[in-house]
Amino acid sequence: MIGKKSVGKTSLLFLLLLGFGVFIATYNLVTMVLHNQRRESRLGVPGADPVIGMPTDRRRLGRQTRPFHVAVTATSAAYSRWQCRVMYYWYKKMKDVEGSEMGGFTRVLHSGEPDNLMDEIPTFVVDPLPAGADRGYIVLNRPWAFVQWLEKATIPEEYILMAEPDHVFIKPLPNLASDNHPAGFHFFYIKPTEHVQIVRKFFPEKKGPLTNIDPTGNSPVIIKKSELEKIAPTWMNVSLSMKEDPETDKAFGWVLEMYAYAIASALHGVQHILRKDFMIQPPWDLKLGNAHIIHFTYGCDYSLKGELTYGKIGEWRFDKRTYLRGPPPRNLSLPPPGVPESVVTLVKMVNEASANIPGWDDGR
């Protein structure tokens, strides 16, 4: 006959073993869920947070690198040329640094004829749109330039980074795309769901919900060449159709071609991983953080006390539009104390480029 003490010990042991078993099962379940969530986040699949962190360096993991070709569309105007020179200077500095997967570089020049930077920057000349087709919106030449370049050029890399002249590489750029999804930047002002009637003209209901359209533009984007070859003609046609529609043209204005890229991608079922560490845009982004690119599209105006005076010309300023007819002078004055790190870094990087690029002052 088993005594009460023995029964008590057996029950206690049973409860301990049961508890331990439940703990192991719960731990395994939670681990599996977290693993799948991390996997979904990396791949950008539906349901995952589209804004993800930097992946672990593939080289440390022994994975093969995936080089991408850097392509920037440009005009032959002085305004475009000096920006391309600064961009190319920093591309060359970052290309072979540890962690970079940058491959070749091409300035896709949509002027229809060579200019005086052909011997300085690798350039592929393509035709502009027929006269009047861009309706004064020169950015419409961008998708047409990519269509021609992809059809005619030999591009050895499997991936392409679509960049712009006002991009400066602050650090080595790895291939942020996954095997199944291109990597893009989340632009807060691309909001398809706020323009339902307009967007549905180009993205019919049978193609799915408007949430299939990513809040991104074509630049910066790292994308497989095979995907861009499919998207580019649609991107061009949607851009032209949008510009011809007065309601759409008025609603989208200077970001019309960005909407066209987002819609064209969705029409082909392509969705992007949106990377908040892709770039920063001073003066709104104050710190460099983990960003790889500075996009200097906005003017930076400050008082001598370091206070932002956006919309009003500051006592100190750096605005690319100040230099429409030629490059900025060497050794620009640095911002006053209190101006954010992002702006200070930008000016220092422009100064370094202008100090080291031969013939900077001749306005090439």
Provide key terms for this protein.
single chain; 364 residues; alpha/beta; 7-stranded mixed β-sheet; 3-stranded mixed β-sheet; 12 strands; 35% helix; 12% strand
How is this fold's topology laid out?
Elements: H1 4-43, E1 68-74, H2 78-95, E2 102-109, E3 123-125, H3 141-152, E4 159-163, E5 167-169, E6 183-184, H4 196-199, E7 221-224, H5 225-244, H6 246-252, H7 256-267, E8 273-274, E9 279-280, E10 293-295, E11 300-302, E12 316-318, H8 341-356
Question: Can you describe this structure in just a few lines?
Answer:
With 364 residues, the protein is of the alpha/beta class. 35% of the residues lie in helices and 12% in strands.
**β-strand number:** 12
Beta fraction: 5-15%
What is the chain-wise order of helices and strands?
A: HEHEEHEEEHEHHHEEEEEH
Structural class label: alpha/beta
Distance between the termini: 103 Å
| Average pLDDT over all residues | 87
Q: Within the largest sheet, what's the order of strands?
A: 3-2-1-4-7-6-8
Radius of gyration from CA coordinates: 26 Å
Number of helices: 8
Share of helical residues: 25-40%
Query: Strand count, sense and closure of the main sheet?
Result: 7 strands, mixed
Shape: globular
What is the multimeric organization of the chains shown?
single chain
Q: Which runs of at least 5 residues are low in confidence (pLDDT < 50)?
A: 1-61
What does this structure look like?
- This protein is of the alpha/beta class.
- The chain contains 8 helices and 12 strands.
- It has helices spanning 4-43, 78-95, 141-152, 196-199, 225-244, 246-252, 256-267, 341-356; strands at residues 68-74, 102-109, 123-125, 159-163, 167-169, 183-184, 221-224, 273-274, 279-280, 293-295, 300-302, 316-318.
- Strands 3-2-1-4-7-6-8 form a 7-stranded mixed sheet, sandwiched between helices. Strands 5-10-9 form a 3-stranded mixed sheet.
- Helix 2 (78-95) crosses helix 8 and helix 3 runs antiparallel to helix 5.
- It is globular.
